[in-house]
């Protein structure tokens, strides 16, 4: 929306953009009411009670308890409405639906790199279809970044050492801004690009142009290249545990505790393999910290995920939806190929 | 009203001559003047950086300076304005000068520590200047890790060290004020007879004493991380980069209240004295300062809603953030009610007070958008946030500071400044400020991220408006330098109480003698009593 050619309001291109804007306009209305109320009163009082002669003093008024209570309680109630509305919307914004389609993003100085499960890779551009919830799992290779889509009204920081996530469902085909919103050094303002929203059919055509196999296939290649396959035999007879059918399953550890084999756990086990030792195995695995890129890492995880075709991610535990809580477990078992 | 308008034969300004009599002074009033000169220097340095930023943003391309230079400019703008201007501004200048006379004391409890505070501040400032000269720093005033710890190759450590040292100045000033307000009140000056300016400084001092050590520790951690690679914030070695943000905001959010609370105190004085009326709901205004100080400590993570904290943590911090909005609103409503049936006049300080009401209201209300989770996700780290905190820190804190400076200038110097020029300046500041920062709300909601050296073309018109406003604002800030300096020699003699104001500081000569009071007064009246006060002055005549 624009006035005299000056844009004053951003495009709404996601399913919840209008919800965010509705809440925004509610707060605008409340703010305008109170700002005008105070402005009118101070101006009216300023005119009406202007000092007429030098010795004049104001009336003796100490205060008024009912008024104090009224202007404490009424704003507090309105604030609670804002809080509740904002919190419930936030909860929705931070919980990707179970049927979400997965995309992986890696931020690095100064570019955004994306990988689609089908194998398409992009830099500073992202193509997505309309009408499907899309979950973007975000990692960072160096410093903090923040993946921001104004037209979708959402963003999430990319944090070194962990995965965060955001989701959206694009509603309107077109090309929109993609920004880095967290300062990241020299070329921060150059870490921008565009997100292209396409009709599903057009998106399928675009996907078909992929080269070099799916993400899981790339992960499988890396799996043998790094010689992971020499120990992690599918039979379970190797020096490392079998990785078949472990995704999102509980894993018993040497110290007696149990963890869920989600992205955060797999990531940690690859990078810092001594942190959590699976019961019945020796701490023999070398650490891969610094030896593997963030993109390689998500491909490996995608490969491991593809070894668990029956993993039931939908209806993930409540805490899993937490924004960037270390385990982006919600709804990730879209196996490669299903999309086609 | 027209008491004898003369400059006393001896006062704190002519009691001792030569550089040493200033540099080694233990007089709280002289120390306040030294702060005034030093923070003004830093203010104009920070303002120069702002001018560079607005020049660059007049066009979408990054064409005025290089990206690295731009990043260093906004970093120095933030570091200087926050740590070396806003935090010391009202407490160290006006608070230092006024708290002793307001409570009927001859000096602060620890005059030597007061001088030490000044020198710590000065040394801290020199470190930051040194960092600037040695190539600058580009982390943003927030020093977020891991960029500040590992990636940036600029003078991070000298800058941070400067902030670290200046922090001790802040702690000592706070400690000095707390002890002074507890122990040095004149007979009869009970807690509920204190001017609200003093209450606001008491609340501020609590934050300075309790909060500043946390930023000191955080800076030490950042220093050892950067210098020796401790790995506290490095995930590759088991650290957590987000931990830095928790520690940083645990101080830096309350620090916002270090900046704004004293301005709220100034406002209460201005509103009462220019409407010649008691503050409506004195105790509510007094306790709202303490409430802001306390709540201010438990809202820090609202800076981190998109930094990977859990949904439930975000909800708790959103809820708590609204709690700090209420005492702020209570103050505005009480000031408005104070005006009702007042006897209002509009000299320059009152123009600033009116401007403050408008800007602080907008600044506070726009904070609601950012405390609300559903909208903050979109607005976080955009120009909306930049506009919001400038409305609070510039619209609030600096308007309060300038209003206070215009109000007490005759007390500090014994002379009046040009009323005509000062009104022009107040209006320029108000208009220029709104023109600068209001468009930033709009461009922020459109999605323009902050700290961008170059930006998409469609944001240009709003940015040009903002840059145009900044030049008006700059003019509004430069004008007082001229008429204040001019007033020192040529200004009309003010006399002890040119405004017919209430408060002990107005009962002593202007400029005050070094010991403030020849005889410690005995207080028998409530604050903001105008009728008996005027009657007493008439008796004097």
Task: Please give a structural write-up.
The complex is a heterodimer of chains A (340) and B (541). Chain A has helices at 17-48, 65-93, 200-207, 215-225, 263-271, 294-306, and strands at 2-3, 6-7, 101-108, 111-116, 121-123, 125-129, 133-140, 145-149, 154-158, 164-169, 174-180, 193-198, 250-252, 258-260. With 340 residues, chain A is an alpha+beta fold. In chain A, the strands form four sheets. A five-stranded mixed β-sheet of chain A has the order 5-4-3-7-10, covered by helices on one side. Chain A has a five-stranded mixed β-sheet with strand order 6-12-11-8-9. A two-stranded antiparallel sheet of chain A has the order 1-2. In chain A, a hairpin with a 2-residue loop joins strand 1 and strand 2. Chain A starts with a strand and ends in a 34-residue tail after the last helix. Chain B is mostly helical and 541 residues long. Chain B has one domain (19-540): Cytochrome C Oxidase, Chain A. Helix content of chain B is 68%, strand content 0%. Chain B has helices at residues 19-23, 28-56, 67-103, 111-133, 147-151, 156-183, 196-228, 241-275, 282-295, 311-339, 348-371, 373-379, 383-413, 419-446, 460-490, 531-540. The model of chain B is unreliable at 532-541 (pLDDT under 50).
Topology:
The complex is a heterodimer of chains A (340) and B (541).
Chain A: E1 2-3, E2 6-7, H1 17-48, H2 65-93, E3 101-108, E4 111-116, E5 121-123, E6 125-129, E7 133-140, E8 145-149, E9 154-158, E10 164-169, E11 174-180, E12 193-198, H3 200-207, H4 215-225, E13 250-252, E14 258-260, H5 263-271, H6 294-306
Chain B: H1 19-23, H2 28-56, H3 67-103, H4 111-133, H5 147-151, H6 156-183, H7 196-228, H8 241-275, H9 282-295, H10 311-339, H11 348-371, H12 373-379, H13 383-413, H14 419-446, H15 460-490, H16 531-540
